[in-house]
Amino acid sequence: MNGIRIPILKIGNVLIASIQIALHDSTAIQFKNDLLEKIHETKARGVIIDLTALDVVDSFIGRMIADIAAMSGLMGTRVILTGLQPAVAITLVELGLELPRVLTALNLEKGLELMRRQSEEEETEDVTAE
Amino acid sequence: MLQQSKVTTVQSDLDIVAARSMARDIAKVLGFRAIDQARIATAVSELARNILLYAGTGEVIARSIDRNGRKGIEVEFRDQGPGISDIDQVMQDGYTTSRGMGMGLPGARRLMDDFEIQSQVGVGTTIVCRKWC
Asked: A79: distance to nearest CA of chain B, Å?
């Protein structure tokens, strides 16, 4: 296809992908596959997908994001979406795509914070379980 | 007033992005706010994808319009695909015949102000939608 790939960065046990371009369907599908492979490869505990630069999220991209969250969840990895623009949030809801079960945060910083908090809670739970 | 009209031929998923950028540019020139620009771009994305999914190829024509001094954008989607036999059915939320989620047509209608659909089985489908400034 057009061969553009979204870079996926690893910081600690978290993967971060920032989408900076208008997503074509083929780029989006490639990204989904790359991300799931990277999760498997790195055993990341969480993924943050930053959408700050996206000014349109249509039902195809919205569904892809929901799929990524569901599939990552099956692999034991949490997905947090960050930086959704107000216009994007409004159109997603009006379109009928509310992305239930997908965690979101205002920006990348808050996303990382949320990820850290959730991991800590899990660890506490693990300890209590023992 | 100056009538601006632009066409994108839809043949691949790359053209979906091209069609919505074209519509957004016209909306921007007309002075639509960011939220309405996103609504228009998203509706165009949904409807252009329908052309690709169901007809394989078609055209998206976007133009600025002026009706009795009221300005807006009009986007027309034309294809010579299989057509729609039951328009009421496809306009229902949740209805889908492909791998979509059934929010293409009703979703796009909610995002725009006017929405007109004409379709004939075996001949094709034309959708005209408008958003007023």
From this structure: 22
